[in-house]
């Protein structure tokens, strides 16, 4: 079995970023991705526009040209697709990683996927968080009517929609589905909307709630979901509303199941941080590193593409310092 200098788990922007640094350093590497190229961005809403500018999303010193200052999801997919092709980054798609173990007697890790087995001197985990939604944990959550990812407003025209959540995504989804003709109510766990909702969304959603166009139930949680209704619990007790779709915009978190399978230690506090050195990005496992937003654990609003773009260079320099020239 050929041993790689580096295996990168995750084919999103951070994984590609590490791949670019590895390619420039002459390392023999491979990227393993469980889904499509930049799988998380692919699952963004169809008509989404990034809050960041295209310049701040650039990786590998490769220009990101968009029609406006802030690119769309479609433009981002095109950028990362061209980036992977231009640098011929070696990536295996639709190949989820299952486990990782040390090879006895040699300084190597063996990584098992659904399709094969690979060995490497170093490993980078760049799995992000957007692929793992925070579940409601209620009966009926597995019904087809429940969506943890929002795609497009069209399927919800004329439908009774419950939006669960109070942050940017929930407010945006409530507004867009309402504007396209859905009958929208919201279930908000707290007594108010998230105070840091984006400034161009907050007044709009507040005005729609005030005028009664969107019904917001505060201090309210979902208790159960049925094919034709949902059961909610608010300040006055349990009540039921007719319902066609539940859009659970409750946020996301790192794939802790995979991190545990890789034997990466996690902090025991509420942040659930994958343990690593914030300077070198090294984990307690020798020659295993973290890259990208996964470093922040459940603090999913702390790290983004734009403030983790140096992770690739940092890690590759660590690998070269430890192992010297590529195999």
Describe the structure.
This protein has 327 residues and is α/β, with parallel strands linked by helices. The protein contains eight helices and 15 strands. The two termini are 14 Å apart.
Which structural class best describes the helix and strand composition?
A: alpha/beta
Note the beta-strand portion: 15-25%
- The overall pLDDT, averaged over residues, is 95
Give me the Rg, rounded.
22 Å
The shape is elongated
Largest sheet: 7 strands, mixed
Tally of contiguous helical segments: 8
How many strands appear in the DSSP assignment?
15
**Euclidean distance between termini CA atoms:** 14 Å
Give the fraction of residues assigned to helices: 10-25%
Poorly predicted parts: none
> In sequence order, what are the helices and strands, one letter per element?
EHEHHHEEEEEEHEHEEEEEHEH
């Amino acid at each position: 079995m050929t041993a790689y200098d580096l295996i990168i788990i995750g084919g999103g922007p951070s994984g590609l970023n590490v791949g670019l640094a590895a390619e420039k350093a002459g390392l023999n590497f491979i990227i393993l991705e469980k889904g499509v190229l930049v799988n998380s961005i692919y699952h963004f809403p169809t008509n989404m526009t990034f809050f960041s500018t295209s310049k701040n999303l650039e990786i590998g010193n490769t220009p990101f040209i968009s029609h406006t200052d802030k690119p769309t999801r479609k433009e981002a997919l095109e950028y990362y697709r061209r980036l992977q092709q231009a640098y011929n980054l070696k990536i295996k798609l639709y190949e989820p990683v299952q486990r990782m173990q040390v090879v006895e007697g040699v300084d190597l890790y063996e990584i098992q996927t659904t399709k094969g087995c690979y060995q490497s001197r170093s490993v980078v985990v760049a799995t992000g968080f957007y692929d793992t939604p925070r579940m409601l944990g209620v009966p009926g959550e597995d019904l087809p009517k429940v969506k943890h990812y929002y795609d497009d407003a069209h399927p919800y025209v004329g439908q009774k929609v419950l939006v669960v959540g109070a942050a940017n995504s929930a407010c945006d989804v409530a507004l867009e589905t309402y504007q396209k003709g859905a009958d929208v109510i919201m279930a908000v766990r707290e007594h108010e909307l998230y105070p840091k909702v984006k400034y161009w969304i907050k007044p709009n959603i507040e005005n729609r709630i005030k005028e009664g166009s969107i019904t917001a139930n505060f201090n309210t949680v979902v208790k159960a979901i049925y094919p034709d209704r949902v059961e909610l619990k608010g300040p006055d007790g349990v009540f039921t509303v007719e319902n066609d779709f539940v859009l659970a915009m409750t946020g996301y978190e790192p794939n802790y199941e995979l991190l545990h399978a890789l034997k990466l230690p996690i902090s025991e506090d509420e942040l659930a941080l994958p343990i690593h050195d914030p300077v070198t990005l090294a984990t307690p496992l020798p020659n295993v590193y973290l890259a990208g937003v996964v470093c922040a654990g459940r603090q999913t609003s702390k790290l983004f593409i734009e403030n983790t773009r140096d992770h690739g260079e940092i890690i590759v320099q660590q690998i070269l310092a430890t192992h010297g020239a590529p195999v």
